[in-house]
Design goal:
InterPro entries: PTS_EIIB-like_sf, PTS_EIIB_2/3, PTS_EIIB_3, PTS_sugar-specific_EIIB. Pfam families: PTS_IIB. There is one protein chain. The radius of gyration is 12 Å and the shape is globular. It has one domain: Response regulator (Rossmann fold), CATH 3.40.50. Helix content is 45%, strand content 19%. The longest helix is centred in the first third of the chain and has 16 residues. It is of the alpha/beta class and 100 residues long. Helix 1 packs across helix 5.
Length: 100
């Protein structure tokens, strides 16, 4: 499973990636999770099962969906993002991927 997170610059989502990786590892789930700035998304998105947008770039949801119509795109909940709730964000991504 490949999950790509995108935010304004890629820095704040980097911390969330670590929390998501820790949760996936604790569950024995193989996951490739990475973060990037929205401007780098095109070079990072290949092979992604889902794109997660940081709340600060949530206004770009429709543009990203249009640019990558074959990949589900989800905006991370502001509360989960602020609390760095890697488990919940990972589980939300899993549900979306599984429902495809």
């Amino acid at each position: 499973m490949k999950i790509t997170l995108a935010c304004a610059g890629g820095m704040s989502t980097g911390m969330l990636v670590k929390k998501m990786e820790e949760y996936a590892k604790s569950q024995g789930i193989e996951a490739d999770i990475s973060a990037c700035g929205l401007s780098e998304l095109e070079e990072k998105v290949t092979g992604s099962d889902i794109i997660l947008l940081g709340p600060q770039v949530g206004y770009q949801l429709d543009d990203v969906k249009n640019e990558y119509p074959d990949i589900p795109v989800l905006v991370i909940e502001m509360m989960d993002y602020g609390m760095m709730n890697g488990e919940k964000v990972f589980k939300n991504a899993q549900e979306v991927i599984a429902s495809r």
